[in-house]
Design goal:
By secondary structure, the chain is an all-alpha fold. The chain has one domain: Formiminotetrahydrofolate cyclodeaminase monomer, up-and-down helical bundle (Four Helix Bundle (Hemerythrin (Met), subunit A)). It is built from 8 helices and no strands. The chain starts with 9 loop residues before the first helix and ends with a helix.
Length: 212
């Protein structure tokens, strides 16, 4: 079994990303970016909790921290799952097609794994989008000393959601299940609807707190 993504050193990960190796690729990058956004939110919570001036916000900060940490762990897992499903898809394409039966089996295997390769980045996009809900309250009431990090998290979320969905789209074009494709595109539309406005609202709060 190959070394797990999260067991690699950062420079090793970046070197592999910049190499001819097909993994890690865009799906893993989207998931890792989301996990970094989640980590920033956890950090801001940790620097808020226990501080006398933020006592009224402590319970909410604890709840935000718990949710952000859960999503961070989910996104880290999704980064690895994206690599794993790519390897399964590569194996499916290498199946024999000597006979008609072989070709049919290969085609079915490719369709099955391509669906899985579509669902994983869609799950990634969903998980990242859930982080955005946590940002406004933390930007408004979390520690002012690190409020810029909430803004960075929001900016990462804004880029990581569509990044994840690009990896959905590239797999959809290979699928023959038209109902699945239609339903998936509807989910994608829901995920991106209003995201730019929500991020802009968070950044406005962050900017105001930095300035005052």
């Amino acid at each position: 079994m190959s070394e797990q993504l999260l067991d690699k050193r950062l420079n090793e990960f970046l070197n592999e990303l910049a190499s001819k190796a097909p993994t890690p690729g865009g799906g893993s990058v989207a998931a890792v970016t989301g996990a970094m956004a989640a980590g920033l939110l956890v950090m801001v919570c940790d620097l808020t909790i226990g501080k006398k001036q933020y006592a009224d916000f402590e319970a909410e900060a604890q709840a935000i921290r718990e949710r952000a940490e859960s999503l961070r762990l989910e996104l880290q897992e999704l980064a690895q799952r994206d690599i794993d499903v790519f390897e399964r898809l590569s194996s499916a394409y290498k199946l024999p097609r000597t006979t008609d039966a072989d070709s049919a089996n290969r085609r079915a295997a490719i369709q099955t794994v391509t669906k899985q390769a579509t669902e994983i980045p869609l799950q990634t996009g969903r998980a990242i989008a859930k982080l955005l809900v946590l940002c406004p309250a933390l930007a408004q009431s979390g520690s002012r000393l690190v409020v810029s990090d909430v803004g960075v998290a929001a900016a990462l979320i804004q880029s990581a959601v569509p990044a994840a969905l690009l990896n959905v789209e590239i797999n959809l074009v290979s699928l023959e299940d038209t109902l699945f494709v239609q339903e998936t595109r509807a989910h994608m539309k829901d995920l991106t609807m209003g995201i730019n406005e929500e991020v802009a609202d968070v950044l406005k709060i962050v900017g105001e707190r930095i300035a005052n």
